[in-house]
Design goal:
Keywords: Amino-acid biosynthesis, Arginine biosynthesis, ATP-binding, Cytoplasm, Kinase, Nucleotide-binding, Transferase. Pathway: Amino-acid biosynthesis; L-arginine biosynthesis; N(2)-acetyl-L-ornithine from L-glutamate: step 2/4. This is Acetylglutamate kinase. The structure is a single chain. The chain has 294 residues and is an alpha/beta fold. The chain has helices spanning 4-19, 31-40, 56-78, 124-131, 154-165, 195-201, 209-221, 237-242, and strands spanning 24-28, 47-48, 51-52, 85-89, 96-100, 103-105, 108-110, 115-121, 135-139, 141-143, 149-152, 169-174, 192-194, 226-231, 250-253, 278-281. The protein has a single domain, classed as Acetylglutamate kinase-like (Carbamate kinase). The longest helix has 23 residues, at 56-78. The radius of gyration is 18 Å and the shape is globular. Bound molecules: adenosine-5'-diphosphate and N-acetyl-L-glutamyl 5-phosphate. N-acetyl-L-glutamyl 5-phosphate is lined by residues 29-31, 34, 51-52, 62, 115, 140, 151, 153-154, 208.
Length: 294
């Protein structure tokens, strides 16, 4: 999302999927853009357990950059050829209700400020948009029961929304080819992993891979057919993976399908097309009508 060519290719993929009858929902982050803005303001960027330590000042920047900048740029790209995308924050319509989240560092629970986990999802607004033929573009900011605004990791937000919507596929774009089996010793990518095995690996995963794989696990345990971790540095990674290109990223499958061979009829990834970016999908809506203004 920081490279214009890749961002455009991603937007084309989402529009192609929509034209093919898929109903994509895009959930975005913007860690690098937040870091750049914090830097400009002379504020620190610190991470613990893959999560940004979020002071009230940091939260203001996170909210502004995600909901005001990254989201609007993405919505603008998706809308170059029609009124397809509508942006909303997780705060809007109680889409993401958050609770304070702590980091786990060496078995210790550490307070990292206004970081949220998703406690509840209200899919009402997202479904309304899908029914109207739109592409919802959701920023990963949540609202607590008390009205407090929380910084939610984008993968966590995407996984929770995908599970609540009952999407067929959760696709997560990142800056590596997939989950490395023995990182940092080796860069061998895990092609396919079942939920139970992933659960065993999770405590040993470092950096941003922890929250990312946890989100995939929660999604497939929450009823999502399959979660795919894809290399977002490759143009059209999303469309390629969903069109069945071999050897793309890491596929997380529910326990019941872990032993099925990839591509078999029992395997949910053969259902193709159903997506997310950090995005998720659900079938073909009508084009939104446009009323010309005289
Ligand atoms: N086992 C692993 N496999 C792959 N990447 C890993 C692993 N453990 C840690 N990482 C790190 O996690 C990073 C991806 O997480 P993050 O930077 O949060 O991505 P994103 O911005 O896409 O959410 C990779 O660039 C890599 O440095
Ligand atoms: C709690 C937490 O870490 N929130 C993230 C939210 C954005 C995000 O997840 O962006 P990426 O997908 O680009 O990493 C952050 O502040 O960076």
């Amino acid at each position: 999302m920081t490279d214009d060519t890749l961002r455009r290719a991603f937007a084309q993929d989402v529009l192609t999927l929509r034209a093919a009858g898929v109903r994509p929902v895009v959930v975005h982050g913007g860690g690098p853009q937040i870091a750049a803005h914090l830097d400009r303001l002379g504020l620190r960027s610190d991470f613990l357990g893959g999560l940004r330590v979020t002071t009230p000042e940091t939260m203001e920047v996170v909210r502004m950059v995600l909901s005001g900048k990254v989201q609007k740029d993405l919505v603008g790209l998706l809308n170059e050829h029609g009124p397809y995308a509508v942006g909303l924050s997780g705060e809007d319509g109680h889409t993401l209700t958050a609770v304070k989240r702590y980091a786990e560092v060496a078995g210790e629970r550490v307070d990292i400020g206004l970081v949220g986990d998703v406690a509840r999802v209200d899919t009402g607004v997202v479904r309304l948009l899908l029914e109207g033929g739109h592409i919802p573009v959701v920023s990963s900011v949540g609202r607590g029961e008390d009205g407090q605004v929380y910084n939610v990791n984008a993968d966590t937000a995407a996984g929770a929304l995908a599970a609540a919507l009952g999407t067929r596929v959760l696709a997560v774009l990142t800056d590596v080819p997939g989950l490395y089996a023995d990182w940092p010793t080796s860069e061998r990518v895990v092609d396919r992993i079942g939920a139970a095995e992933l659960e065993r690996l999770l405590p040993g995963l470092g950096g941003g891979m922890g929250p990312k794989m946890e989100a995939c696990l929660r999604a497939v345990r929450g009823g999502v057919g399959v979660a795919r971790v894809l290399d977002g540095r490759a143009p059209h990674a999303l469309l390629d993976a969903l069109a069945g290109a071999a050897g793309t990223g890491t596929t997380v499958v529910p326990d019941a399908t872990a032993s099925a061979s990839p591509g078999s009829s029992a395997s949910p990834e053969s259902a193709a097309y159903l997506v997310s970016s950090e995005a998720s999908v659900t079938s073909a809506p009508p084009l939104p009508s446009t009323v010309p203004v005289a």
